[in-house]
Amino acid sequence: MAFELSPLPYDKSALAPFLSAKALEFHHDKHHAAYVKKLNELIQGTKYEAMSLEDIIRATADDKVKPTREVFNNASQVWNHDFFWRCMKPEGCGKPSGALADRLSHDFGGYDQFREEFKHAAETQFGSGWAWLVVDGGRLKVTQTGNALDPVDNGKPALLTIDVWEHAYYLDFQNRRPDFIATFLDHLVDWDFVAGNFEAVQEKVR
Known about the structure:
The structure is a single chain. This protein has helices at residues 21-43, 53-60, 66-86, 98-108, 111-124, 170-173, 177-188, 191-205; strands at 129-136, 139-146, 158-163. The protein has 206 residues and is mainly α. It has 2 domains: 21-86, Fe,Mn superoxide dismutase (SOD) domain (Helix Hairpins); 98-205, 3-Layer(bab) Sandwich (minor pseudopilin epsh fold), CATH 3.55.40.20. Helix 1 (21-43) packs antiparallel against helix 3 (66-86) and helix 2 crosses helix 3 (66-86). The chain is globular and about 50 Å long. The mean pLDDT is 95.
């Protein structure tokens, strides 16, 4: 089964002026597309060809042998990008409400404290990687992953992520990663998507 490049959930110009159409074109149509293409090349004729993206990630996460590690890196980057696009929406942001807001207050002390912790994680991720809001042991936590790593293989459901690879922000923000992160948090986050992820996790434990 060949994987396909998932379309963006909005027009490439829809996140302007916060992220430009050119930035999304390069990020989605070139970087993301390259991961999908490479993954399909790597899994052709292998046992991974019949697996879901998540199952490929879990099956290859601990293997350090180069061919298998390449499968993991590309599968994980496809999953990460699919998830990242859905974390944003045109005219997004505001602040979370309802059960998610209550849990952020309980686990972080409030939205502002969560925002600072998430921003710090994204800013201090050395080199390429991601910052995440995840559910870990029933609590909301902020975490970082380097390169292609994600929470899929360790059973910590992801609610929100930001891509801090340079290709995510360099066209619009050059070397100003903190400005990109602040823009993401203040103008782009789709809190309805994040809340839906949180509700799905809650449903599984009821």
